[in-house]
Amino acid sequence: MDAAFTEEQDEDRRRALRALLRDHHGPDGPGAAGEGPRGHDEGLWRTLAGRLGVPGLALPAAYGGAGRGAAALALVCEEAGRVLLPAPLLPTAALAAPLLLALGSEAQRSELLPAFAAGELTGTLAVPGARLATALALTGPNTGDWAGGGRAGGIQARADGRGAWRLYGEADQVLHGYGADLLLVAARAGAYARGRTLLFVVRAGVPGLRRTRYAALDETRPQGGLELRDVPAALLGDDESGAAVPAALAAAGATAAVALAAEAVGAADAALAGAAAHVRGRPDRAQGGSLAVRHRLVDLYAAVCSARATVYSAAREADNGRGAPGECGLAPAQALEALRAVAGEAVQVRAGGGSLGERAAQRYARRAAGDELLFGPAHRLRTHAAEVSGLFAAHRTGEAVPA
């Protein structure tokens, strides 16, 4: 696959992806609720990989990817969000793959990343205590003992003395945790005083692993619970000190934030288009009430455009290596707030109709609420981004702020 795409080729990819997703999925189409034993359409996932190279867009060409970075991934995620695609795109391409690339040994990267790019393998990140946003440094520092700290309620890792590891504990609300082929599990190793957080590779179906499918608020984001009882696991990479884990998780958090925000922008744009079409077709379109609704839709259009600009700015910053991890939280904060507002208005303009469009608007609203539960409330994402950037440090300390 040629990694040197032009803007025209990117637009061709967008159009091809939009047509493919429109034919197979939509907020009211087959599979919209994440049906199927694994929570997604496996045939469509293989098609997205084989025809458009979707899972491997941001992976280096050496591992079967296109080497396109966060901006290309954002473009794809925006189209996926438009139809609320119940696919493992975000956990595989924005969580598992970046962590494998950053921390994995060469043998692990060579074995697993090409399978990700080809759509033959899906993955996700499992974090105990429903603390995914903390682990990814999106709502606060991730240098604490959020993985368990040697206490009950987390996940503990024990070396068996022969180069292998065993995991014990539980993780809830794992994104695509029920259907993923590969789990990257965050666990605490070592005694409490000298403990450190490490990441481990766990294959689906290994002895001692029990997975439970949860009924999630947003059915297009299937979640699962994990119980690990003496589960055999392989350390991700070769470094048992865990020194590189927080930075790698924060970097993956930046990629995930861009992907999450892009999906929210796509969903908001589609929900807004549906609401506008409904208002245009109402028999009372000339009345004052309809005019007020149109004014609100114009304001929401501006909010969606602003969120989209923030998303692609964050993607460019990530691709250029600029900006501190955590600053990227501004993009999903703005995008999720825009989606929440648009979905709320879309539900209101269709209220009481009981139509397919009303049910679609409700699904967009659940996507916004579900994503905030998984990745942190918008106000916490924004607050942490402001703290990391240091923009208001002088104001907090009472120093003079330059004019």
UniProtKB/TrEMBL annotation:
Residues 13-120 form the Acyl-CoA dehydrogenase/oxidase N-terminal domain. Pfam families: Acyl-CoA_dh_1, Acyl-CoA_dh_N. Residues 258-387 form the Acyl-CoA dehydrogenase/oxidase C-terminal domain. The keyword Oxidoreductase applies. Keywords: FAD, Flavoprotein, Oxidoreductase. Its cofactor is FAD. InterPro entries: Acyl-CoA_Oxase/DH_mid-dom_sf (IPR046373), AcylCo_DH-like_C (IPR036250), AcylCo_DH/oxidase_C (IPR009075), AcylCoA_DH/ox_N (IPR013786), AcylCoA_DH/ox_N_sf (IPR037069), AcylCoA_DH/oxidase_NM_dom_sf (IPR009100). It comes from the Bacteria. Residues 22-42 are annotated as: Disordered. PANTHER family: ACYL-COA DEHYDROGENASE, ACYL-COA DEHYDROGENASE FADE28. Belongs to the acyl-CoA dehydrogenase family. This is Acyl-CoA dehydrogenase.
